[in-house]
Every structure is written in structure tokens, then in C-alpha cells.
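Input record, target 12 of the design panel.
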């Protein structure tokens, strides 16, 4: 079986480098990863996105992943800031021009973007970036968002069938030189062809963030990276969660799969300082209305996790979109990242309430500890 460690795309894309624990950014195109009303929270501002992307790039972060969002989570307040998110494709193209080494992703919904458009846009961004592009494909789960397009919110199983057709078409458009017909249940394409082809061969890396069993099989079959929520704090259970993804990829599809997760970071000089800040933004100024809207929509339309598990993670969803908790001193944060790595996680996307200040602290104090522990190398 081919290992991603020997992947030819390693020549241009750091996602395939040999750092044991890869790092990235998540949610820089929008309001970040917290539901809070504090003024320092991101508001989809380009200058902040540029400044943070550049710091991550210089520090050797491997990935920069935006989220795909067309609408906020409070139905009776359509203008609520939870809907603030720059378009992922154009954001990614521009981000490649203010960075020089990190991988840059777009996150694309299946039902809102035709595969011919996606294939050409992805190939274009891959060329613009010099082969550093990646595609995070999501099946779409937020019904009011899809309603705006008049796009059908398919039942869970069909959603992933449609995503499979979408990816099949993309892969053919990226690799085939002859025009082809495609007659599927969701797409009908006459003499389809797309030029130029992407720079990365056979095509750019694909990430998927499905949480259900169907989502896991989809990631195992089609993706290079599964992007998962770590639900447990127990290292053994985390390892079991990660192994399940890898085993599904190996045993059912003969493939190797990187497993990534994401985490929210609050780094303080002391544990107390970090905890106080978490309390300030997530408890005193937490946006409970957005959280309630999100929880309700997720419960109705996804199979991300059982309802009781989701309720248990409620605070985590508010504080950091359900990400793993990295709160405390640099030492504690490095220890927690080590725990994820030893449980088999290949990469962690990070987010802060104040991205720029947060990543500076992280790069100054936490990153050297990870290098010291052999989890990563300093960039050349
Ligand atoms: C880490 C992570 C990131 C995600 N990013 C997005 C996103 O940007 N846009 C979106 O519509 N859905 C996003 N999702 C939702 C997933 O695509 C998926 O619908 C959800 O995890 C539920 O899983 P299921 O579809 O397998 O039931 C994300 C999920 C996770 C776990």
C-alpha cells in the first residue's frame, strides 16, 4: 500500500512532510472558532487574515483551512455575525499570494458548487499557489443555508452519494485529457473536460470532515486527510477513534489516511490567566443564542455524534467549535498536543479568539517545546 509519506506531492505541498505533528489554522476567513461577542473576536477582516497567515507560514504551519458558510445560525436574525465568512475559493487564492510555503485549502460544499466550476477553480488555485493547494469537501448540513440556493437538502445517505459523484467527476476532470460523458443520479455531464490541469499530480490533496459512519467511509475512500472532532479526553479512547479511521481506510479501501483534528487555544503566562480569559469570552460574553441555533440545526440534520455526547460538549462548541481544549500555559498546551500526537493524530488545526496575538504567543513559547520534543522541526 502506498504511504502518504512517499507522496510525490511532498515536493510542493508541506502536508506530506515528515513532521510528526503537523499544524494549521482553522476559520481565519470568518469569525474564528468561538461563539462570543468580545470585540477582539475576528470579523472576517482581510488584514488580520493576512497577518496571521504570514506568521503561520513563517513558523512552518502546514495548513490553512477556511470554513464554508453561507448563513448564520439564528433563523430570526439572518444578519447575525455567525454568518460572517469570506468566500473560501477567493480567500484561498489570495492567501496563497501572501504566503510562500504553507498548504492553503478551500472548503467547498457539494450542493452549492457545480463540479465543473470546482475542478477549474481548484486547478487554478493550485497553479497560483505553486502546488500548495488542498480541497476540504463538505456535503452540506445546514438546511436554511442550502434553502437559499434552492438546493435540495438530501437525506444523509444520499448527501454522501452525491458527494461521491462530485468527487469522481472532479478527479476525472483533473486527470483525463479526453472529454467524457457522465450520467449519474445527481449530475449529467456531456463531453466534460477541464483545462488547465492542477499542478499537483494526480490532483491536490482532499480533506473531508464527515463525522458519521457514512462520513468516515467517505473520507476513507476519497480523502487524504480526515478532519475529525476528538470527542474524548482519554488517550486510549482518542487512539481508538483515530485507529477506526485509519483501519477503515486500510482494510476497506487499501488506502493510507492522515487524521487531523482541531483545537481552540488560550495561552496565558499562568494557568489562571488563561482560564480567566476563557471565562471572559465564553461565559461572560459567550453567544448562547448562536450556540442554541447551531446545536438545534446540527441535531436536526447531521449524525455528527449522539445527542447526549453533543450536549456534553456544549461548552466546547461555544468556546471552540467543539475543538480539543488547549487552555493554559505553553507547557500545558505542548503536553496536550503531545497527547494527541501519541494517540495517532497527524495534524491539528488551531484557532484563537484573537488570532494574531494568539499565534504570536504560541510561536514564541509553545512551538519551541514541540520542536524540543521531536514532534516538529523548525522551518529552514
Ligand atoms: C472539523 C470540522 C469542520 C467542518 N467544516 C465545515 C464547513 O466549513 N462547512 C460546512 O458546511 N460543514 C462543515 N463541517 C460539517 C461536516 O461536513 C459534516 O456535515 C458534519 O461533521 C456532520 O457529519 P456527517 O455529515 O457525517 O453527519 C465540519 C465538520 C467538522 C467536524
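The sequence produced for target 12 reads:
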Amino acid at each position: 500500500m502506498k504511504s502518504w509519506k512517499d507522496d510525490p506531492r511532498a515536493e510542493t505541498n508541506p502536508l506530506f512532510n515528515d513532521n510528526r505533528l503537523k499544524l494549521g489554522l482553522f476559520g481565519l476567513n470568518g469569525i474564528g472558532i468561538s461563539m462570543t461577542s468580545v470585540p477582539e473576536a475576528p470579523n472576517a477582516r482581510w488584514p488580520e487574515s493576512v497577518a496571521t497567515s504570514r506568521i503561520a507560514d513563517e513558523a512552518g504551519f502546514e495548513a490553512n483551512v477556511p470554513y464554508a458558510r453561507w448563513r448564520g445560525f439564528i433563523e430570526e436574525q439572518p444578519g447575525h455575525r455567525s454568518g460572517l465568512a469570506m468566500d473560501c475559493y477567493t480567500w484561498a487564492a489570495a492567501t496563497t499570494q501572501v504566503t510562500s510555503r504553507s498548504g492553503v485549502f478551500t472548503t467547498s460544499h457539494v450542493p452549492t458548487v457545480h463540479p465543473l466550476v470546482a475542478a477549474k477553480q481548484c486547478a487554478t488555485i493550485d497553479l497560483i499557489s505553486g502546488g500548495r493547494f488542498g480541497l476540504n469537501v463538505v456535503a452540506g448540513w445546514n438546511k436554511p443555508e442550502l434553502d437559499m440556493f434552492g438546493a435540495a437538502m438530501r437525506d444523509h445517505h444520499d448527501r454522501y452519494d452525491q458527494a461521491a459523484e462530485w468527487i469522481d467527476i472532479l478527479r476525472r476532470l483533473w486527470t483525463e485529457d479526453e472529454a467524457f460523458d457522465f450520467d449519474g443520479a445527481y449530475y449529467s455531464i456531456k463531453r466534460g473536460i477541464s483545462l488547465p490541469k492542477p499542478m499537483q499530480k494526480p490532483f491536490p490533496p482532499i480533506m473531508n470532515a464527515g463525522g458519521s459512519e457514512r462520513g468516515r467511509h467517505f473520507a476513507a475512500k476519497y480523502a487524504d486527510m480526515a478532519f475529525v472532532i476528538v470527542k474524548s479526553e482519554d488517550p486510549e479512547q482518542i487512539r481508538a477513534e483515530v485507529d477506526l479511521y485509519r483501519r477503515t481506510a486500510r482494510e476497506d479501501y487499501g488506502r493510507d489516511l492522515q487524521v487531523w483534528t482541531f483545537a481552540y487555544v488560550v495561552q496565558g503566562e499562568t494557568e489562571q490567566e488563561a482560564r480567566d480569559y476563557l471565562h471572559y469570552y465564553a461565559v461572560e460574553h459567550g453567544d448562547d443564542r448562536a450556540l442554541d441555533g447551531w446545536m438545534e440545526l446540527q441535531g436536526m440534520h447531521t449524525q455528527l455524534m449522539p445527542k447526549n455526547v453533543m450536549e456534553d460538549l456544549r461548552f466546547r462548541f461555544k468556546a471552540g467549535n467543539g475543538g480539543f481544549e488547549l487552555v493554559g500555559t505553553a507547557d500545558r498546551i505542548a503536553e496536550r498536543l503531545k497527547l494527541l500526537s501519541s494517540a495517532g493524530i497527524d495534524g491539528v488545526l488551531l484557532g484563537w479568539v484573537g488570532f494574531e496575538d494568539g499565534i504570536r504567543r504560541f510561536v514564541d513559547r509553545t512551538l519551541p517545546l514541540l520542536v524540543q520534543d521531536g514532534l516538529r522541526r523548525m522551518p529552514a
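The mean pLDDT is 94.
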